[in-house]
């Protein structure tokens, strides 16, 4: 009986852990001791270097969302939209759709150019445009258009 109970509790804890969604506390706007302009997180160690030419950097409900562009990026760039938890700016944590329990092709939100003409984005309520990325609440689930009721830009009253 004890073995059955311990195995049941273990499986329950494992299931709850596996289904837990990641979250963020967002950027802590506390005073920093580094000199202004100090690089806090290196692109190679935080996983942002392979994106290619960075064209958009956005803060949406606690997450930093970074996009790139295909023309102008070096050969071999991956052009994958990135989502980072920056609650510790010296140790950025890249999040993937699978971290939120989402199943998107290639475990990617957006591939290729991000923004209008790969330059510039806008925010409409809890959506980042033009290829809508939705974060319903602070530190919440990061979702893309066409899934879970997230509208495409053509369905917005803009």
Describe the structure.
The chain has 158 residues and is of the alpha+beta class. The strands form two sheets. Strands 1-2-3-4 form a four-stranded antiparallel beta sheet, with no helix packed on it. It has a four-stranded antiparallel beta sheet with strand order 5-6-7-8, with no helix packed on it. Strand 5 and strand 6 form a beta hairpin. About 8% of the residues have low confidence. The N and C termini lie far apart (62 Å). The relative contact order is 0.16. The radius of gyration is 18 Å and the shape is globular.
SS strand fraction: 15-25%
**Which bin fits the share of residues in helices?**
10-25%
- Please tally the helical runs, counting DSSP H or I stretches of 4 or more residues: 2
- Major sheet details: 4 strands, antiparallel
Shape: globular
Number of strands: 8
